[in-house]
């Protein structure tokens, strides 16, 4: 927001200096940086639907470095940039983020506007890119989206708002836990696992990421009793056990546990491992929480 304000002030100073500008450039000039790609949406203009800015999916996504694939049989569009991927189905107001490198999928979200096809182009809420972890800012009839080192800008219906990233990162665990309204014990993983990041998703879901070599472990907790794991994979090995009087669901393949879920004292928990942990290790971790 500070950057946007600074750029707007710069544009105002240019205006007072009576520097001429083309009408098309004047609309989005405050949002352009040296490495920003300006998209021409002529014929595929963004529009408002139930208060959401709808944008042409393929044009915007490919400019941001996503690979876009159309599945005509399912009326579905798939996106992947090597870090995150997702899919949207025309007419279905359901959106999610899936890791391209690890096990994990966010709970489906509704934005109040389903993907649609107009003259052969698919349109989605601009919120989808924020859900995928990109930075989305709209101001004065223009939008900028930053994904990694790529920046794009384009015209949108006139409105001023900033779409927040649903994932808020924290430098330490304590403020993240407090932001989610929790006061819980962290899992004690084997010594070779190091904490990488703590975050809160949607203001309520506490998450800590750990890594050891090529294995990534994610611990999640949130108030309530819903499944907050974000893991919707189908596993061949399922088992229910009891730890400290609490029922725990174990799921995995090949003799290892990839996902454990349980609820205790009004809090829902999950522990997932990309490569899988032994059942004994998982149960020892849960027993100490």
Tell me what you see in this structure.
With 289 residues, the protein is an alpha+beta fold. The chain has two domains: 37-163, 2-Layer Sandwich (Copper Amine Oxidase, Chain A, domain 1), CATH 3.30.457; 167-288, Phosphorylase Kinase, domain 1, CATH 3.30.200. Helix content is 17%, strand content 41%. The chain has helices at residues 2-16, 23-28, 57-63, 127-131, 173-179, 279-288; strands at 36-38, 47-49, 52-56, 67-71, 76-80, 84-89, 98-99, 116-118, 121-125, 135-139, 142-147, 150-155, 161-163, 167-170, 194-201, 205-212, 215-223, 237-243, 246-252, 257-264, 267-277. The strands form four sheets. An eight-stranded antiparallel beta sheet has the order 14-15-16-17-21-20-19-18, with helices on one face. Strand 18 (237-243) and strand 19 form a beta hairpin. It starts with a helix and ends with a helix. The relative contact order is 0.11. Keywords: Signal. Residues 44-129 form the Copper amine oxidase-like N-terminal domain.
């Amino acid at each position: 927001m500070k950057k946007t304000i600074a750029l707007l002030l710069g544009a105002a100073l240019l205006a007072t200096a009576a520097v001429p500008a083309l009408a098309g450039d004047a609309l989005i000039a405050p949002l352009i940086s040296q490495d920003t790609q300006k998209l021409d949406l002529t014929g595929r203009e963004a529009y408002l639907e139930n208060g959401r800015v709808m944008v042409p999916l393929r044009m915007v996504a490919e400019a941001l470095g996503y690979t876009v694939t159309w599945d005509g049989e399912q009326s579905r569009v798939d996106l992947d940039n090597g870090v995150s991927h997702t899919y949207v189905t025309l007419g279905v107001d359901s959106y999610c983020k899936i890791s391209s490198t690890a096990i994990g999928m966010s709970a489906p979200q509704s934005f109040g506007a389903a993907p649609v096809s107009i003259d052969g182009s698919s349109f989605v809420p601009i919120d989808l890119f924020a859900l995928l972890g990109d930075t989305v800012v709209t101001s004065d009839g223009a939008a900028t989206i930053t994904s990694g080192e790529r920046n794009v800008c384009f015209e949108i219906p006139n409105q001023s708002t900033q779409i927040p990233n649903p994932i808020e990162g924290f430098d330490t665990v304590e403020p993240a836990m407090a932001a989610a309204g929790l006061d819980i014990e962290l899992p004690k993983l084997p010594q070779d696992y190091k904490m990488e990041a703590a975050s809160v998703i949607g203001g309520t879901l506490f998450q800590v990421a750990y890594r050891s070599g090529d294995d990534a472990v994610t611990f999640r907790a949130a108030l309530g009793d819903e499944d907050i794991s974000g893991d919707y994979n189908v596993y061949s090995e399922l088992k229910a056990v009891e730890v400290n009087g609490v029922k725990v669901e174990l799921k995995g393949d090949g003799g290892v546990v990839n996902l454990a879920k349980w609820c205790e004292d009004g809090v829902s928990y999950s522990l997932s491992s990309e490569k899988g942990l032994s059942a004994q290790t998982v149960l020892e971790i849960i027993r100490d929480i």
